[in-house]
User: Fold this.
Amino acid sequence: MSYREKENIVNIFSGLLITAIFGWIVYQRHLEGRFDLTEDFSKWGVIFLIFIGVSIVVRIIIYIIFHIINAIATRGEDIPIEDERDKLIKLKAIRNSHYVFSGGFVLSIVALAFGMPVYWIFIVFIISGLLSEIIDNGSQIYYYRKGV
Amino acid sequence: MVKRNIQNNIRRLRFNADEMTQQKLADEVGASRQTIVAIEKGNYSPSLELAFRIAHTFKIPLEEVFIYEHVELPKKK
Assistant:
């Protein structure tokens, strides 16, 4: 398995892990009554901002751990340079992930039009954000294996 | 599976160039080893610039590295 494929797998699992843990913590606080996510929409804004910050920090930590483990496993093999093929694969993967995220956005608007509560928009945003990241990294793995 | 019309002789050329490694060729042309592997297998068609760089490395014309098999495109109705 190439370095890029390993990197994509780590990205998928770190995205799943961070979203699951953060979502669980927020949901527990909501159940405890610390805030009401069905009514207090400004809280959603705060939660999203905290999520972005936490996500960046945790990803950096996971990346450092990944690089250390990879360096040990491959006995210090150099990280491959990003060339034109990597860029093309990244572009195609980003296109796929944008389709998914846009689909989520449209879905949330449709749900709103059909009378679903407003907080559903935020939940669909989180889910489509996570799905788009999985599609992004999954597409990259696919293109690396099957060709582009 | 994508049908590709561009074949290449890179494996043979590397062999003739004193069994040049994929990594050495990759370093020479400024690409990753994985990209050279993909080109050799026919899973990736390189850009014109990279194709010229590969040809330049072996000091031969481009058409001796890459072979294009022309296939008629289906006509639009």
Residues 6-68 of chain B form a domain with the 434 Repressor (Amino-terminal Domain) fold (CATH 1.10.260.40). The mean pLDDT of chain B is 90. Chain B touches chain A through 16 residues (CB under 8 Å). Strands of chain B lie at 6-8, 66-68.
